[in-house]
Amino acid sequence: MVEFSVWDISRNLLFAARWTLVLSAIAMLGGATVAFTLLVLRLVNYGLINKAIIIFVELFQGTPLLMQLFLCYFGLALIGVETSVWLSASFALILYTAAYLCEIWMGCVRSVPKGQWFAGQSLGLTFTQQLKFIVFPQVYRLAVAPTVGFLVQVIKATALTSVIGFVELTKAGTMISNVTFKPFLVFSFVALIYFMICFPLSWFATSLELRFARAVR
To answer: Which of 63, 121, 127, 199 has an alpha carbon within 20 to 30 A of 163's alpha carbon?
Structure first.
């Protein structure tokens, strides 16, 4: 058994937590980019493309993230694509995030009354102009809170990347627990760090939702 002080444990876990944050940022930025592209393509509503996007969303929402990580890590290697833990974890989380954000944002778009689309058409606005000047300004206000709320889910979902060897907060906790034989203490710190990261975001998402709700009244 290796003797670790409380300071040693907390310091090493905080060091690992930065990789949790980096991976979460990659997942959100990459996922948001893909999701926005898919959203626009769905709004254009080309038959086959729209169906393909719906299948993509249903596939990633209907299967466990753990399985998606395994497929990205082991599946890519089987078809001859050189991969790494970083690449596999990022790729899987980007696709997972994109599927959920696309559906969240599509729901926000559907909440815009159809009459406003028709009003834009009657003013001679093109489809792009309708999105830019009528739809997206309203969607932004509706989408910010659930998007920030989903970020909390992404941060917690990064814990699953430990199963393919990505050393983030949960994996670091497991490694430290194995050498110190203090699982309760170690994972108490792990849970506390997750809470310190996620609670401010949850509070921020709730406050945004309340603020926008008051602004609409």
So the answer is: 199
Counted domains in the chain: 1
- Has residue 1 been placed in a domain? no
- The set of residues, in sequence order, having a beta carbon less than 8 Å from that of 25 and lying 6+ positions away, is none
The torsion region of residue 124 among left (phi > 0), alpha (psi -120 to 50) and beta comes to left
Structure-token match 């930065």, residue found: 18
DSSP state of 163: G
- H or E element in which residue 78 lies: helix 76-78
pTM of the model: 0.91
Query: What is residue 80's DSSP assignment?
Result: T
Dump pLDDT digits (tens) for 148-177.
Answer: 999 999 999 999 999 999 999 999 999 999
* Residue 166 belongs to domain with CATH number: 1.10.3720.10
Residue ranges making up the domain that contains 163: 6-216
Dist. CA 179–CA 192, nearest whole Å: 20
Please give the structure tokens belonging to residue 209.
């939702």
Residues in the chain: 217
